[in-house]
Amino acid sequence: GVYSMKFILTAGGTGGHIYPALSVLDEIKKDKSNEYLYIGTKDRMESDLIPSMGIPYEGLEIYGLSKTNIIRDIKNIKCISSSYKKCLKIMDEFKPDAVIAFGGYVTLPVCLAAKKKGISVFLHEQNMLPGKTNIFLSSKVDAVFVSFKDGTRKLKCKRIIYTGNPVSQRAIETKKYNKTDLGFSKDKKLIIIVMGSLGSTSVNERLLDFLRSYERDDTEILFITGKKSYADLNNNLIVPKSTKIVPFFDNLPSLMKSADLIISRAGASTIAEIMATKTPSILIPSPYVANNHQYYNALDLVNKKISILIEEKDLDKNTLIKAIDEIFDENTLKEIKNNLKEIKDISSSTIILDKVKEISRLKNEPKWMEDFRVKAFEKFKELSNP
User: pTM value?
Assistant: First the structure.
């Protein structure tokens, strides 16, 4: 196409950064003439996942700075510098029109190299409180896209654009999964409990007590343990018939569309999926993440009156049952569902890609060319609508 472009996407470390990148990549792929390259680490989640999907991949050897291991930090400073040099070379060879970064320390050398070469650079921030790398890079980039309307604190960029989280567009487009295929009843309420892709040992322990005893005639539970915790839990847990335990469920949003309540962590992707699938939720933010950002993610949903927040330190059988009963109270449930309906769905991936194209073209084309293009387009519209 006349407007085919070359993109570098970069994101590292966790699904929270990687899945939004993949969602924008879905959008980029819709135009077959676009080219793309993914840059990640050599040793984290993305280094297996991305190549396995047939996406061109470059791995950098780079590690997070540690507060305690000085030797590793010295080694890492060398890694950052050689990663930066490698990225300069990639920019020269691949010649991208734009670089889009979704968080994680691996994005640092990529963005700095692109900036040095005069390439347009964009950030996407999933959380209510931005991460360190994004805060540092924000003053150097062409635009920052944010998932939350208020998620602009600490970002030093002239162009901050609210786009939502691209993961939500994926969730909206996914087909509803039929819960009866998992052996659940069509007429009973379904609660999904999930604590992130790996599971959370600290929370699972607190949930066991609840799972052993919670039985209601009109409610069923699916407990997704996370791959790490499954064997351990499944062997030691006797639960009522109405509860099923699985290690993992591949397309959670499709199942959320046929559930009545989700009990989960408050990571950015989960929150985007909750809003996209319009599912009432009880959120238990992970206290073990940088600047407690999950707590602020969750707070936003509590303020929208679509969610109940339980801090992990307060989580036990009683607080959880109380929260479930509160959500399933007829009037509350009606209010929550109405509030969820009122949240506007936005096509985040589409908006992001449109903005990236628009801003990087303006940067790359001379003024007379842009004027000519606009005039030609007007003329074309005139001719095609006599």
Answer: 0.77
Q: Is 13:45 a contact under the CB 8 Å cutoff? A: yes
Instruction: Count the neighbouring beta carbons within 10 Å of the beta carbon of residue 68.
Output: 6
- Helices 330-342, 317-328: crossing angle, 10 deg rounding: 70
Q: Position of tokens 């009432």?
A: 280
Q: Are strands 219-224 and 243-246 parallel, antiparallel or unpaired?
A: parallel
With 0-12 CB in 10 A as exposed, 13-18 as middle and 19+ as buried, what is 274?
buried
Residue with tokens 């309906």: 341
Per residue in 278-309, pLDDT tens?
999 999 998 877 778 899 889 989 999 999 99
Angle between helices 166-173 and 348-364 (to 10 degrees): 130
Residues 293 and 353: their CA atoms lie apart, in Å, by 26
Token output for 85: 């040099």
Read off the tokens for 32. 């077959």
Give the tens place of pLDDT for each residue, 123-174: 999 988 888 889 999 999 999 999 988 767 788 888 999 998 998 888 888 8
Query: b or e along 175-204 (b: 16 or more beta carbons within 10 Å of the residue's beta carbon)?
Result: eebebeeeebeeeebbbbbbbbbebbeebb
Written in H, E and C, the secondary structure of the chain is CCCCCEEEEECCCCHHHHHHHHHHHHHHHCCCCCEEEEEEECCCCHHHHHHHCCCCEEEECCCCCCCCCHHHHHHHHHHHHHHHHHHHHHHHHHCCCEEEECCCCCHHHHHHHHHHCCCEEEEEECCCCCCHHHHHHHCCCCEEEECCCCCCCCCCCCCEEECCCHHHHHHHHCCCCCHHHHCCCCCCEEEEEECCCCCCHHHHHHHHHHHHHCCECCEEEEEECCCCCHHHHHHCCCCCCCEEEECCCCCHHHHHCCCCEEEECCCHHHHHHHHHHCCCEEECCCCCCHHHHHHHHHHHHHHCCCEEECCHHHCCHHHHHHHHHHHHCHHHHHHHHHHHHHCCCCCHHHHHHHHHHHHHHHHHCCHHHHHHHHHHHHHHHHHHCC
